[in-house]
Fold this protein.
Amino acid sequence: MTKTSNEPPRLLADLRTLCLPTIAGQWRRLGEEALRQRQSHGEYLADLAALEVSHRREKRIGRLISEAHFPILKTLDGFDFRAQAAIDREQVLELCTGEFVGKAVNVVLLGGVGTGKTHLATALGVALCQRDLRVRFTTAAELTNTLVEARGESRLSRKLEQLARFDAVIIDELGYVPFDKSGADLLFNFVTKVYEKRSLIVTTNLPFSRWGEVFLDATAAAAVIDRIVHHSVILKTEGESYRLGQAKGSARKAGLRKVGKI
Ligand code: ADP
Ligand code: MG
C-alpha cells in the first residue's frame, strides 16, 4: 500500500454516520501497519472490516450476557467434570452449540444441593449468549413472584410475551420453595406459553415423583412435568456437594483428620 495521506476531512463524520466506530478509531494504526507489512488496499480494508465485526460481536455478546442476569458468571472451563462423573462432558459440549434451542428442547438438571446444577445451567446459558441467543436466568421463586406481581398490575400477558421472547429461560431452584396455588397456576401458564416454542433450562433438587410437593397438587405438577419433559434432555448430577468435597480435600491436605461442621 502507498503512503496514507493525512486524515481525509469527511472520514470520521462518514464513519460515524455508518456506525463504524472501530474503523474510525483504528484506521490510522492499521494503515501504518499495512504500510509496514506492504499489504494491498484490499487486505487493509479486510483487516479493518474484520476488526469492526469482531468488536461488534464482543459488544453484542456482552449485552446478551448482561441481559441474561446471571447471578454469577460461570463457564464450562471452570467446571471440573472429573468431580461430577455422572455428567457426560461431550453431551454438555453438544448442548453448548445451542442446537437444542432451535428445536425448543428443554434441559433439566436434577441433583442434590451443591452438585453443580446452577453452575452448569449458567455455563450453558453463557455459551448460548456466545451463539447469539437471548437467555434469561431466573429462579423459580423469582419467576412466580414476577408473574404474580404482573397479574396484580394487569400486565400478565405482556410479561409472558416478554419472557417468551427469550430463546431460553433458565429456571433455577425449582423445588426449593413450594408455590401457593396462584404461583403454581402462573408457572403452568408460562410453561404452556413457551411449550414447543422456546427452551427451558430447569434445575431442581427434586425427582419428578416429588414435584407434587412443590405444586401442592399432583395434577398441576403432572401437567408441568409433562410439558417440560416431553422434549427434553435430562442431566443428573450426583454425589456430595462440590464445596464439601473441596473442604474435605483441603482439610486432608492440611493434615486434619476430621472435617468439622462446615
Ligand atoms: P447446585 O446448584 O447444584 O446447588 P452449584 O452449581 O451452585 O450447585 O455449585 C456450588 C458451588 O460449587 C459453586 O460455586 C460451583 O461453581 C461449584 N461447583 C459445583 N460443582 C462443580 C464442579 N464439578 N466443578 C467446579 N465447580 C463446581
Ligand atoms: Mg443451585
User: Anything to note?
Assistant: The longest helix spans residues 41-68. Residues 258-262 have pLDDT under 50 and may be disordered.
